[in-house]
Give the backbone structure.
Amino acid sequence: MAEKWDCFYTLISGATGGVGRAFVWACAAEGCLFLTGRSEEKLAALKGEILAKYPDCRVLYCPCDLTDESSRRTMYAYIKEQGLTFSRLINVAGADIQKAFEKYTDEKIVFQCRVNLEAALSLTRFVLTCRAPSLEILTVGSISGVYPMPYFAVYSATKSALVSFFSSLRIEQKGKGVKVTVVEPGGIYTRPDICKDIEGQGLWGKLSAKKPEYIAKKSLKAVGKNKRVYRPGFWNKFIAVVPRVLPLGVRMRFIAHRWKKLEKDAF
Ligand SMILES: NC(=O)c1ccc[n+]([C@@H]2O[C@H](COP(=O)([O-])OP(=O)(O)OC[C@H]3O[C@@H](n4cnc5c(N)ncnc54)[C@H](OP(=O)(O)O)[C@@H]3O)[C@@H](O)[C@H]2O)c1
């Protein structure tokens, strides 16, 4: 029986959210999952769902507030204690606060930078210490990271920093059996408020948005091919590249015009 659990794990952060769950289901058939999110209740329920469908899947979880260094340390100690080895890390946890910067509090700035950026860097460094001979590191960024985005400025800056960081890391890890990909999706139909925002954006929103299952499936393929950046769907590839013929100031005025109408802080 012991050999049955002797497998390489996929660690998924933000596993209990809309995108995270899609990755969970896309990876569950492979066998060994390590899931994290803040809520123990949600993680336990998710484990139950997985085992009902895949009774042979090895599912471990650990509740962790990724913005909290000591909570991360506790999770890392638990993983070391269990002697787990990872062949894949999927950084999904993130917070999409959207409002004028002057309406932020210091706490919100720290929270968003930590969960969107610091958490992914910390998990990545940790997983590099307990990795299988081959490792895939897949990180969910956003199309918002492609250009600076007024009224979505902190989110956009953290997502763009992810691309910068992981682009460097893949060079450092070249030849070491590590594949590194950042995915830059447009809207994804997850929480009800996000689905409402996508609908509210009309044709533009619909062209850019995808279902979480699509994002998970295509992103896993992209990291398998070791793509530096993957933008799901034709429209997202188009808006990331073609408008670059316009001066940045023009693009940002257009973005500001669209985004200033929206305000969102679900966290
Ligand atoms: N939905 C979109 O339109 C869209 C588009 C582009 C990119 N993305 C990116 O996709 C990712 C997931 O988005 P989603 O739509 O699935 O959002 P979601 O449903 O709100 O899920 C967010 C996940 O992050 C976890 N999380 C949040 N704060 C955390 C913290 N402090 N510590 C640990 N875990 C934390 C949440 O778990 P708990 O609440 O249980 O802690 C949850 O599992 C994010 O990185 C987001 O930026 C989303």
